[in-house]
Design brief:
mainly alpha
């Protein structure tokens, strides 16, 4: 599938939004990991493969996984942005370069 020029340039905005969503998920998990869970006073059944780790440990593991993914996505984002900037800078028309940089690199409408 071939991308149009506009779709190609819009990748920066889309990747940025995706990274922001991932960062938001991390913040949500951090908040959950710091909240207190209620104490259960009922009968406790032991045995089986019940995970005895505190709930916040699972949140921390998920946060670490997400942060690794975020770092990978940021690396891709920087590479893509650098490639697109180079392509824009190769245009001969200065006004076109300025408009494209403002719209797709700086995010101005």
């Amino acid at each position: 599938m071939t991308k149009t020029t506009k779709e190609y340039l819009k990748q920066i905005e889309n990747m940025n939004r995706y990274i922001e969503q991932l960062l938001s998920e991390v913040e949500e998990l951090r908040a959950l990991s710091q909240s207190l869970s209620g104490t259960q006073f009922g009968e406790r059944i032991t045995g089986g493969n019940k995970n005895n780790e505190a709930a916040f440990v699972n949140y921390i593991l998920k946060i670490n996984e997400l942060e690794t993914k975020i770092n990978q996505e940021i690396d891709k984002f920087i590479d893509l942005k650098t490639t697109i900037i180079k392509a824009i800078d190769e245009l001969e028309n200065l006004e076109e370069r300025m408009v494209l940089r403002a719209r797709y690199i700086s995010g101005k409408s």
